[in-house]
Amino acid sequence: MFYFANELFDHQQYERAIQYYEQFLQTKKGWVEDCIAACGKLADCFYALGNEEQALRYVYQSFEYDSPRAEFCCRLGYYFLQRKQYRLAAFWYHLATQLTMPSDSWGFFHHACWTWLPHLQLGVCYAYLGEYELAYKHNEKAREYVPNHPDVLHNKCFLESILSAKSTFHQTSE
Length: 174
Known about the structure:
Helices cover 75% and strands 0% of the residues. By secondary structure, the protein is an all-alpha fold.
């Protein structure tokens, strides 16, 4: 049932995929990693259909199967970032940076969510909050993982220009 739902999802038959993913979860017999993956796919289906409320429901439901995964924390961070709720977004991205990828799992992981992506996004959140030093620190942490990523390099230049101007202002006002 889970794999059939995946096929439907891959062919953008989201309504039918939703039916089968939900049936799969209702059996309560799936492997925990497949249940977590089904929650992610359900969130993707509902997001594609423009139903963010239902998408969010399945992100939270993923927490019922195991401790939070960085992929789902990043999803929540993105959700709140899009709504300009920067403190809430930062909370979820920060949580993603604190998690350890399960070593005893055979599930699939989005490596970026466990390494550089939450740091990049924390840089964005903190920049919007006017906390430029903290934004720069997280962008630099992202740069340790992906030193040539265009978004990381763009943010580095942007934040350095702000911090430089701020430093110059403080020096001339003293």
